[in-house]
Amino acid sequence: MIVNIALACLALAITVAVYRVLKGPSWGDRIMAFDFLTVNLAVLVVVLAVRTEITVLLDVALLVSILGFLSTVALARYLLRGRVFK
Amino acid sequence: MKFVLSVIFALLPLAIAAEDVAVIRANWLTDLLMLIGSFFILAAGIGVLRFPDFYTRLHASTKLVTLGGLGIFIAAAVAFIPNAATERLLLIAAFFFLTGPLSGYMIARSGYLRGLPLYKEEGSADEWEAQGEGLEQFEKDNASSDD
After folding, report:
1. Of all helices (H) and strands (E), which one includes residue A86?
2. pLDDT score at B3
3. Chain A interface includes B81 (CB < 8 A)
4. Which of residues 82-141 of B touch A (CB under 8 A)?
5. How far is CA B58 from CA A82, B47, B100, in A?
6. Strand partners, A54
7. Is B16 left (phi over 0), alpha (psi -120 to 50) or beta?
8. Could A13 and B44 be called an inter-chain contact, meaning their C-beta atoms sit closer than 8 Å?
9. Cβ-defined contact of A28 to B58 (cutoff 8 Å)
10. What number is the ipTM of this complex?
11. Which residues on neighbouring strands pair with residue B21, listed in sequence order?
């Protein structure tokens, strides 16, 4: 029951994030909403692991959070300096 | 394509070993922590939808999602205690707690140095601009270093 409430809150937050990615007035809003989206996806995978009782999904959550952090850092660094690496 | 997908979904129960499927009993601590975490995540969604400015939206999303995600991770760690999956969840929580503020800081810094507009009202001040650390200072520092 509580798990379903958490899934509903995560679905609303992900809908808001997709709205900000598509509509955001500036590019900073798009990067911020993308970061918000990936973090919410990692939390969503953990809640699904609790609901479906499959512990393999926890590895998926760790992978999603690592990929989201790296892509956020790469986007922010590219828009600040014009390049990602040297 | 459809055949490949049907084969994958037919073989999916075999890929999940028997010890990976947990049995979770109802637990009041899990319910309470998950309710707190979902409340913070819902508040972050409302903040991202309603705040007037890039920086305030960034504030709402970064800080509230870090706190709410930490609550949900600890709730899942309590729920998975009989299945020895708690240390993986604590690893994810530590990673979240380290990287969430870091990515928020990098987005805010790049947005400020590239000149995104600030929301101003009566009595608001820009302390960073008053110190003279804008984009020119950043480019001057960045030109000499090989970073």
Report:
1. none
2. 84
3. no
4. 83, 85, 88-89, 91-92, 95-96, 99-100, 102-104, 106-107, 109-111, 113-114, 116
5. 22, 9, 11
6. B21
7. beta
8. yes
9. yes
10. 0.89
11. A54
| Phi, psi for A54 (deg, rounded to 5) | -115, 115
Using a CB-CB distance cutoff of 8 angstroms, which residues of chain B are in contact with residue A32? 48, 54, 57-58, 61, 107
Q: Do B42 and A9 touch (CB under 8 A)?
A: yes
Distance from CA of B124 to the nearest CA of A (A): 21
pLDDT band, very low/low/confident/very high, at B124 (cuts 50, 70, 90): confident
Nearest CA to CA, how far is A70 from chain B (Å)? 9
> What is the arithmetic mean of pLDDT over A72-85?
83
pLDDT digits (tens, 9 = 90+) for B93-120: 999 889 988 999 999 888 888 877 888 8
Per-residue pLDDT of B4-36, as tens digits, reads: 888 877 777 766 665 556 666 668 888 999 999
CA distances, A43 to each of A63, B3, B122 (Å): 12, 32, 38
| A13·B142 Cβ contact <8 A | no
Q: Which amino acid is at B81?
A: I
| pTM for the full predicted model | 0.82
For residue B117, the 8-state DSSP code is P
Kindly state the average pLDDT of the residues B55-71.
90
The string of pLDDT tens digits covering residues A30-50 is 999 999 999 999 999 999 988
Q: Of the candidates B18, B28, B39, which has an alpha carbon nearest to the alpha carbon of residue A56? A: B18
The single-letter code of the amino acid at B26 is A
CA angle B65, A72, B95 (to 5 degrees): 55
